[in-house]
Amino acid sequence: MRKRMLHTCVRVKDLDKSLDFYKDVLGMKEVRRLDYPEYKFTLVYLALPGDEVELELTYNYDQEEPYDLGNGYGHIAIGVENLSDTHDEFSQSGQDVTELTELSDGAASYFFIKDPDGYKIEIIQLKD
């Protein structure tokens, strides 16, 4: 049986602020939007250019308090060709980023950036 990853979902408090982050900072494009005013929520699907896997932002109209991220959420991961330049770009634009880290065995180099709701996105150096 054929299977493939379709999307990951995160709930966002401020849809416009989140769209600004995912589009302007991370370079994602809006793939589609589904509004359900009768149920008081909107779904916005985003993807990086050329990727099939999507990120679904779920916006519940009545959410006034920030979401409790809990301790079960891990992170979203995005690969980049030049980790150092990407880190510098995000840092200089005032984004909430961690220091560059390299695993002791050299398996990965990365840093984390947070979205407006506090979700972590791991930015990883792509291997050749």
From TrEMBL:
EC top class, as a word: lyase
Signal peptide range in chain numbering: none
Pfam families named in the record: Glyoxalase
Catalytic reaction equation(s): (R)-S-lactoylglutathione = methylglyoxal + glutathione
Cofactor binding description: Binds 1 nickel ion per subunit.
Described purpose of this protein according to its UniProt entry: Catalyzes the conversion of hemimercaptal, formed from methylglyoxal and glutathione, to S-lactoylglutathione.
Protein name (Swiss-Prot/TrEMBL): Lactoylglutathione lyase
